[in-house]
Amino acid sequence: MLRILTIIFPALFLYTSTSLYAESLEALYQKDCAMCHELTDPDLIVAPPMKAIVSVYKKSYPQKEVFVEHVLKYLLAPSLQNSLMGEKTINQFGLMISQKGAIPEDKLKALIAYIYDKY
Ligand code: HEC
What we know:
Number of strands: 0
Structural class: mainly alpha
Strand content: under 5%
Bound molecules: heme C
Number of domains: 1
Radius of gyration: 17 Å
Largest sheet: none
Number of helices: 5
Helix content: 55-70%
Order of helices and strands: HHHHH
């Protein structure tokens, strides 16, 4: 009996905590990224749509772990050198502000994994 419980409880916990986490990640995404990356009005747009960015990054880094690693690297130190979107994007919108110190690194990683799954 005890043995069954030690299997069931962690599984249950993992299930509820990941589904709660997914909800809060959407909220976090809305709060921290969507204001710039989900604008569609051409007059208001301030950054490339996230869907387009994810598609470019997935072409170079199809594996989730590698994708997360490279996007994280960019968000902590945006530069033309680190950019996959390239010079045209940066000239059009200006360089993205670094997220270093603004959002904890583990939250950033979870957010990046989230956009990988979302798009
Ligand atoms: C204040 C507006 C703003 C916010 C908020 C913002 N970004 Fe950006 N982001 C930009 C702009 C502008 C660019 C295009 C210029 C560039 O690539 O640096 C960009 C580019 C990017 C790129 C492409 C980098 C490249 O050039 O290869 C990624 C990936 C990205 N953002 C992810 C995110 C994520 C994830 C979040 C939320 C944690 C976020 N951004 C929040 C403005 C923003």
